[in-house]
Amino acid sequence: MLIKSATGIASSEITPQGTYMRRRDFLAALVTLPIAGRMVTTTDALTPKQAVTTYGNFYEFGSNKGDSVKYGGAFKATPWSVAIEGLCAKPGTYTLEDILKPHPLEERIYRMRCVEGWSMVIPWDGFPLSDLIKRFEPSANAKYVEFTTVARPQEMPGLRRPVLDYPYREGLRMDEAMHPLTILAAGVYGETLPTANGAPLRLVVPWKYGYKGIKSIVKIKFTDRQPTSTWQDANADYYGFFGNVNPAVPTPSYSQATERRLGEFFMRRTLPFNGYGDQVASMYAGMDPKKLF
Ligand SMILES: Nc1nc2c(c(=O)[nH]1)N[C@H]1C(S)=C(S)[C@@H](COP(=O)(O)O)O[C@H]1N2
Ligand SMILES: [Mo]
Question: In 22-36, which positions are buried (b, 16+ CB within 10 angstroms) versus exposed (e)?
Fold first, then answer.
């Protein structure tokens, strides 16, 4: 039976049966973060924390919303390190502490939208990806950045059923990666990221579809060629490389014209570039808008 809660999300999706204890243990491990600044990019109401931290896709744990909460109990986000590879002056393996230390976290309130047609307003805690990239001194021929998610079958049961080609990969063009709206997030709602949202470090690109926001990053690589992403390899008609929110281009099974904000009853009209067009559209001048999805 599907019981709709006050937020409009089926309660069965919010708290899968039998996981109350595990979630309580897990949430107790979250640490409050020191937040240095704030950027609010929307006046829309925040999506409730409960929905933000439980309703989402993380296929390494399973293909249902909530599987990362249900099956994420064994996942260890510490210790953590990130390999920096490819066309740059300072490749190497950096601990999470090395990565985060020079970058004060700020709160970024962003609208987010999934290809599947749901959207949220999320208070991320992160820092500009550009600040991190500059530290590694990418060379002039580094035109793209490729990101890779950790793959630990022992801790991530979804990896044992290979619906996707793991490890999960994503990519950005260098100008997209350097754009001031693009952040790496280490927290949400003022606390360290829960497993479900990509602990301990994930990408957030608010003008693109949710799939571009790769979680639990262990590798960042600078390349001269456009990388493919895991979803693009799986189905290029649904998941383009650019992944820019484009309400004019439907996928084979989802119209992208409207969206349902979690917690709302009526559908909203989806905005080009998820409403961030005034800040990002110039990066795509001269490109065929049909190819930007
Ligand atoms: N590693 C990894 N990252 C991922 C996914 C995934 O399955 N694996 N799903 C993506 C998709 S399709 C969406 S919509 C967002 C959802 O999570 P969020 O609400 O925390 O951004 O994560 C993205 N990042
Ligand atoms: Mo998504």
Answer: bbeebeeebeebeee
Residue 171 beta carbon below 6 angstroms from any ligand 1 atom: no
Tokens of 267: 């559908």
Q: In the structure encoding, which two tokens stand for residue 91, read together? A: 């490749």
Q: What is the pLDDT of residues 20-45, one digit of tens each?
A: 445 555 555 789 999 999 999 999 99
Residues 6+ apart with CB under 8 A from 238: 115, 231, 251, 252, 253
Q: Which tens digits make up the pLDDT trace of 132-152?
A: 999 999 999 999 999 999 999
User: How buried is 49 (Cβ within 10 angstroms: 0-12 exposed, 13-18 middle, 19+ buried)?
Assistant: middle
The model's pTM = 0.92
d(CA 276, CA 176): 13
Q: What angle do CA 259, 216, 278 make, to 5 degrees?
A: 40
Q: How far apart are CA 260 and CA 229, in angstroms?
A: 26
**Quick one: DSSP state of residue 290?**
G
- Residues with a beta carbon under 5 angstroms from ion ligand 2: 57, 114, 210-211
Strands 217-223 and 144-149, sheet pairing = antiparallel
47 lines ligand 1 (CB under 6 A): no
